[in-house]
Design goal:
Elements (H helix, E strand, L loop, with lengths): L16 H19 L6 E6 L9 E6 L14 H10 L9 E6 L27 H11 L4 E6 L8 E3 L2 E3 L3 H18 L5 E2 L9 H13 L5 E7 L9 H8 L1 H6 E7 L2 E2 L2 E2 L3 H5 L4 E6 L13 H19 L3 E4 L3 E2 L13 E5 L4 E3 L2 H10 L7 E2 L5 E2 L5 E6 L6 E6 L7 E8 L7 E6 L6 E6 L5 E6 L4 E5 L21 E3 L14 E2 L4 E5 L6 E5 L15 E4 L7 E9 L5 E9 L12 E7 L4 E8 L2 E10 L8 E8 L2 E6 L2 E7 L7 E5 L5 E10 H6 L2
Parallel strand pairs: 1-21, 2-3, 2-13, 3-4, 4-7, 7-8, 8-9, 9-12, 12-13, 14-15
Antiparallel strand pairs: 5-6, 10-11, 15-16, 17-19, 18-19, 19-20, 20-25, 21-24, 22-23, 22-25, 26-40, 27-30, 28-29, 29-40, 30-39, 31-36, 31-40, 32-33, 32-39, 33-34, 34-35, 36-37, 37-38
Helix pairs in contact: 2-3, 4-5, 9-10
Length: 684
């Protein structure tokens, strides 16, 4: 690897006048040589006077219950993960964090709880997004915080043209109250609020939200409209309306779109650029928004992301990119597995994986800050394959170049020349590729404002005058399977909170005082169907290991309404986002109604539900009852209060997780237990 720019030797003491003149001429000639590209070299002029948009940062969107299991991690591993995500000079050093405003409705990998389930309800301790924002802000007080709803509690919605919508004055007030609560209870300033995730916008509602934020004296600005390419009039359609409507232009501070590529081409329109608004990729992925999601190691996701961050600006004029999600902290058999920059979904083990996507992100976030300016004349394509973008600080004291050679086969040499108020006595160079991970590989001394460097193929570089970069060194313990046997009597969980490891897929399962017995129980508490974002299956909550085979899952149930109680096992897929229609889990279900009617069912994607057995038992609905599903080989046994209801043979679901479920009404569960079949049999 060649590294030009070494200092020439200087004579000690004063030089005679004719030697001084000769030195001046030689210096001028040397400057010209360094400034001129050698044969085949790319020349980049870093001009501090160059025009360019303002960099708004790289971040991630915690939504769709993607961060559900993170809060259950033990210390110190939980803090280590948060450091890798948010701590400056340590890992990804995320500069933006967008969180879902929960609505108790499935928003991809589960449901996130609402903080106001009625106009008089108010609880800012529910869920984990408040906590995550606070932890991110504690590590980086300058982090830019955003909020966006996917669904909403039913009371804020309205029916329009036969469809349920959240574009109402009540929703505008709900959003403003969320922003107020963030400040009051957590000391957090929410910079931006979105409208409705991946739904066609409504300009009347945008104006309503703007008026509400103004009336409540909130500084939060509106970003619009977080649309997916296939939705409505097109994801950039709001730009055309902004150009025609001065009031709408006043109301919207920035335009954000999701997955801004169609057939590999970025879709930014001329109208969007002409609005003068910041343009953001407000949800993105290394896979361009299509499936399946790719691994986040360097070989796959890291390399793609390195190119994507640069390309979003070069081709799309996009000054911020947010990845869904910051961390894969949800079970693997849910929708869109492996979406996060990191991987951490086994809190019982404390294990996590710092993937290549973390370091691909760090190559920008640790070298340029929001508010820096892109230098368009020093940003572009390399001769073979690869791209580069240059940015400078407001005071021009610092600058950085992020350069990637993804897909290149050979070394490429680039000469750089500084002008327009930019300078450097030393340029620090960091590199990531298949053999190096975020390594400080060189320091180059520019001579006469110029230097040359040769870049390896298929690599990512940061060239900078800044310091303070770093690479976290914390190491996790090894991964272990979900603990079996597993039991929870819910006594250790705080009231109105979710027990460890249970992942609600719709509705909300929270610990409440038991009805008809002492202690604490698990209760499904949502009785008014929320305004949905997508498919709306009946509420259920999930846990366990997809590889489990021979086991018994059992729980006590108590009816507080006419809703049925369901115990489930061998769940091999809980993905409800498969064809735009509502699906419950794919597995075996034992369902008991308050009148004693019961069913043993097999549910499967795109196939009719199969009834393996059914009947009616005599029960007292005012009392607690015990439901059990037992699996041994292909044999499934259903029991009620210790009495066998049915035995069936079936091979549809040979293994899978467990769940508890009901309908949109109240029911309680207690003493959840999962036991290997041999142990369960021996205990009888």
């Amino acid at each position: 690897m060649s590294k030009a720019g070494s200092r020439s030797k200087r004579a000690s003491g004063p030089a005679p006048r004719h030697w001084a003149i000769a030195a001046m001429l030689l210096g001028a000639a040397l400057s010209l040589v360094l400034a001129a590209p050698a044969g085949g070299q790319k020349q980049v002029v870093l001009d501090g006077n160059s025009k360019g948009r303002i960099f708004d940062g790289l971040g991630a969107a915690s939504a769709g219950a993607s961060s559900r299991l993170l809060i259950d991690y033990p210390e110190p591993e939980r803090s280590q993960i948060l450091d890798y995500l948010f701590k400056p000079g340590y890992g990804a050093a995320l500069q933006r964090l967008k969180v879902e405003v929960g609505g108790d409705v499935n928003s991809t990998d589960g449901s996130e709880p609402s903080f106001m389930r009625s106009p008089t309800d108010h609880n800012s301790t529910r869920g984990y997004e408040w906590w995550l924002m606070a932890e991110a802000h504690r590590r980086n007080p300058h982090i830019i915080l955003e909020v966006l709803p996917w669904g909403a509690p039913g009371w804020v919605g309205a029916d329009v043209a036969g469809k349920r919508t959240l574009y109402t004055p009540k929703m505008a007030a709900y959003m403003a109250k969320f922003v107020e609560t963030a400040k009051r209870d957590y000391g957090l300033d929410i910079a931006y609020a979105g409208v409705w995730n991946e739904k066609v916008y409504d300009t009347t509602y945008i104006e309503e939200l703007y008026r509400q934020l103004q009336a409540d004296h909130l500084t939060t600005k509106i970003v619009c409209c977080d649309e997916y390419p296939r939705e409505g009039k097109g994801q950039w359609a709001i730009a055309d309306e902004i150009l025609k409507d001065p009031e709408l232009a006043r109301d919207i501070a920035g335009i954000g779109v999701h997955y801004p590529r169609v057939n590999g081409k970025i879709t930014t329109t001329d109208a969007a650029r002409r609005t003068g608004k910041p343009l953001w990729s407000s949800e993105d992925q290394p896979n361009g928004g299509g499936g399946p999601f790719v691994s986040r190691d360097w070989a796959e996701g890291g390399r793609i992301l390195a190119h994507l961050y640069n390309e979003n600006y070069l081709e799309g004029s996009l000054t911020a990119t947010e990845i869904w999600s910051p961390i894969t902290s949800y079970y693997d058999n849910l929708a869109a597995p492996n979406s996060g920059l990191m991987y951490a979904n086994t809190p019982w083990s404390g294990h996590y994986d710092v993937q290549g996507a973390i370091w691909a992100t760090a190559h920008t976030t640790q070298f340029a800050q929001p508010g820096w300016q892109y230098l368009d004349s020093a940003s572009g394509d390399l001769p073979e394959k690869g791209t580069y973008v240059a940015l400078r600080s407001t005071d021009r004291k610092n600058w950085s170049v992020i350069l990637e050679t993804i897909g290149a086969k050979d070394q490429q040499t680039v000469s750089f020349r500084l002008t327009g108020g930019l300078f450097a006595t030393q340029v620090h160079i960091w590199e990531t590729n298949s053999t190096r991970t975020f390594e400080h590989v060189a320091d180059v001394m520019p001579e006469h404002g110029a230097f040359t460097y040769s870049f390896d193929p298929d690599s990512l570089y940061s060239l900078t005058t800044t310091t303070g970069q770093g690479k976290g060194r914390a190491q996790p313990p090894p991964a272990t399977p979900f603990p079996l046997p597993y039991a929870d009597d819910f006594e250790a969980t705080a009231l109105e909170h979710t027990p460890k490891y249970l992942a609600d897929q719709d509705g909300a399962f929270e610990v409440r005082p038991c009805a008809g017995r002492a202690g604490r129980c698990l209760e499904q508490v949502i009785t008014a169907i929320p305004v949905p974002w997508g498919p709306l299956p009946d509420p259920f909550t999930l846990a366990g290991d997809e590889g489990w085979r021979d086991y018994s899952v059992a729980a006590d149930v108590h009816f507080l309404s006419d809703a049925a109680a369901t115990v489930m096992g061998h769940i091999d897929s809980a993905n409800v986002f498969r064809d735009g229609r509502a699906h419950g889990p794919s597995g075996y279900l034992l369902r008991l109604k308050p009148d004693g009617a019961w069913e043993l069912l097999s549910t499967q994607y795109k196939k009719p539900t199969a009834t393996l057995a059914s009947g009616t038992a005599t029960i007292d609905r005012s009392q607690w009852h015990h439901l059990e599903l037992r699996f041994q080989g292909t044999r499934i046994t259903a029991r009620l209060d210790g009495t066998r209801l049915a035995t069936a043979e079936d091979t549809t679901h040979p293994h899978g997780m467990i769940a508890l479920g009901t309908e949109w009404n109240r029911i309680q569960f207690d003493n959840l237990r999962v036991t290997p079949t041999a142990e369960a049999t021996a205990a009888r």
